[in-house]
Amino acid sequence: MRNIIHPRPNPIIAAMYTLRDMDVDVVVVHGPAGCGFMASRMLEEADVRVVTSGMRDNDLIFGASEPLINTLKQVEEKFHPKTVAVIGTCASMIIGEDMAKSIRKAGIEANVFPVDCHGCMGDNTRGAIKALEAGRDAGLITKEECDRQVSLMKAATRLEKSVGMASRDYLPPATSPTKLHVCRRIIDVLSQGGKVAVVMDAKKELAYRFADMFEAVDRARRKLGGETLFVANMDPELGLPRIRNYCREIYADLDSKGVSIDVVTGGLDEYSILGERMKEAVDSFKPDLLVLMGICHAYPEMGVDDILITDQPRQLANYLNLGYRWAVGEISSHSMVMGAHSIVPLETAETLRELLR
Which of 150, 154, 152, 156 is nearest to 134 (CA)? Predict the structure, then answer.
């Protein structure tokens, strides 16, 4: 079995993000204070309180029930939450912590439920599935939505293992080529009366950043001429509560700028299964230039002359190594969109706007 040795997402962190998407008020990380530190800080930017039971070395021997009970009582006193998720970590799961029992003993008024998760489960999506199933059992989502989400998680895993970052044993992080050369291509095509299709297949909150490209290309069309087609996975009626709201906020922002999406193919959580639908819309338009954003490799038959915009430095390396010379990276996008409620400027879009000026 081939071993993937570059860093991969963690099931614990995937579970935490999924709990955010279900609008859980507080996430208690039952483990050492530093477990998931960077993700916890980012989630707090998205108005989710993340705290830790702060397990110590003695807790690994004698159990950490009391630290967890005390933490839950502090959470109730400090935040007065409606929903609290207690998520397991490598430390608490290895010693067999009974989190459900500790939750009952704490006896706080909130809807508190455990997520049996740890970092050695394998695919990061397994952590997300554990969170979804726990949310279903706690009454946060329906069985139908849980089943739908689980199927999407499995599809995302298949995609990554077939053509994404999990398809290669090692990928070094890459720095992006300049955005100038791709923006000049867009300008050249539109100024000659050509057609540009812009397709966003974004993963959840990253849509706040990639959507900025629609405004920039629309501005270029109005100034230079040509035709455009905008395709996006932004159906506001699909997905977990927070994900649907992302769509509504992005649409409001685009509407205020006079920009419309021509074809909506699905929801922000369906990025792994929408490629064929997006390609069908693009093929009927017959563009002279295709711009793909987000999970570009979900689009079937990417061309070497297509412009690819990704937020992942290792995915950028994958694209460049495969010969996609028009690939550029919008690195650090994830941290920039946490807590966003409107479109966050994209460097490629800003470069295009600057060239137009």
Answer: 150
